[in-house]
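Chain A, query sequence.
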Amino acid sequence: MAAMALFLNIAAPSSASYPVLHKTHLSPPFLLPLRHHPTASTRSATKISASLIDPDGGRLVELFVRESEKDSKLKQALGLPQIRLSKIDLQWVHVLSEGWASPLKGFMRESEFLQTLHFNSLRLNDGSVVNMSVTIVLAIDDVQKGRIGSSTSVALVDQNDNLVAILNDIEIYKHNKEERIARTWGTTAHGLPYVEEAITSAGNWLIGGDLEVIEPIKYNDGLDRFRLSPSQLRDEFARRNADAVFAFQLRNPVHNGHALLMTDTRRRLLEMGYTNPVLLLHPLGGYTKADDVPLSWRMKQHEKVLEDGVLDPETTKVLSMAPGLERLNILPFKVAAYDNTQGKMAFFDPSRPRDFLFISGTKMRTLAKNGVNPPDGFMCPGGWKVLVDYYNSLAPSDNGRVPEPVPA
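Chain A, predicted structure.
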């Protein structure tokens, strides 16, 4: 659930037939302005802030215990009722502890839960409103509720009973599952993976409160070095002297069509007057889709794509209605497809639709699974080899079926 980040500084060879990104990171639609003074031609069209935009609520809320307090918190936890966290619960602790959900200070209390369900936002004490479209809650059952009794704090432990955090000033309230599902997904139909795993089978009560997290959450899966916190990302943007940040979020391996979108976004930012746009590559972790390439293999493929030097208006109205998004500039992007006449990924030309081939993520994975090469120019050879190697690594008993991803 937290960010996976890749940064790279590369120069674009003048003879390259594929897109290349300079000073890059990874998503086209969203632009975060940084320390920029626009030219006269862009000043009227673009709203620019003088510095990196503030987190929702005005400050980044990190929830880690100070080093000097850890021993006392460990002793305190020994006398508290315990709640064992599921893998998904632990991921939400990760999200909260690093400030991804600022200004939340812990799992939602009932007022925050209801505001999020009904308004997709939170009204803060100063009257300001921030975007909050997903409920971040911790469910407990009747037995756990009984054990907590009149205690005002509980200890949160992982599956091995290691202390993760303490939840203080707790509030327990009814878990209205059907309303939560209906308002979040717009349906109560069966079969939604997150609903089945984290809501339907969860307890009938929710417990909210303020979190004190003992240590940063680590997964020890070889990918922790990519999981940068908001604070680390902000420091990295500053270190690179970025005057604009644009992000590309994806759950598939990177191909040259993606790279084309990213390169074009950077070009447009330069035309707007920015001098050093930084691209944030933001692969999705956790559960995505049953036949998706697992995160560890996607990260290998992303790194290979970077190594090989490949990277370099209806929705605006809808997005502008959400609180806080007025601080972002929206850059609509074009549709990319494989141009048979040029032998590479290019922007779709509606005047000659028969010249273009659309290769979906599903089709891409099917080609790799069957050992069939895509058209030249669709993906760099090194990146494609990583995908083929992944499918070749599957046990014969899998019959080519991609195993269901385990949240990481």
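Confidence is low (pLDDT under 50) at residues 7-50, 312-321, 399-408. The CA atoms of residues 170 and 376 lie 58 Å apart.
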